[in-house]
Write the structure tokens for this entry.
Amino acid sequence: MSLWRNAVWVVAAVTAMLYSAMNTFVKTDSQHEHVQEVMGRVRAAQIEIQVTPLNTSIVDHLRGKLSTWRDNWTALLVLEETNQKQIASHWERMKDDMLANVAAKNNELTQLRESERELMQHLHEWRALQHEIEVTTADIASIQADIVRQRNENAALRRDAIARGQAAVSRQADMDEFRRILTDEATTARDAATFHRRVLTSIAVAGGILSFGAVMITLRARWRPPPPASRRQ
């Protein structure tokens, strides 16, 4: 069993070595082909590159352009001098106009400052007037608050007086009612006492009558003569 295992390990190792060698060979062959391709491109580029002889007509053309450029530069300098003179004249006129405009603006600024001073004075007066209005408004509000407070106090006093009057009237009514109740109770007690007295009197009279009747009956039975003998037989 160990022999077969060793054989398998040997075969696997040999296979790995062969695979690595073949892979290295393939990579080397591919790199060699790439180098050959690059070298071919370099040789083709060297063949295509050719040194051309210098063309003197280009120099003559450039000299003509240089002469034309110098002429144009001279004309440009003349034009620039003319433009400088025109610009200086225009600048002088513009400067005079600007100075005149500055003087006019200064006059306008002076008038504007005067108007601003007047406006600030009016604004100060308006603020003073507004402060007086606010003070007057506060005084009016305070007076109105005092009036409202006085009205509330008067209303409270009026309600208190009404409540006291109603309480006095209620107490008087209660006293009258209490007196009426006491009078009714006294009358009722007096009537009850009279009724009780009458009942007791009636009972006493009835008792006296009954007692008198009983006494009379007893006396009559006692003092009554005996019946005859014939009646007894």
In short: The radius of gyration is 77 Å. The mean pLDDT is 73. Residues 1-103 form one domain.
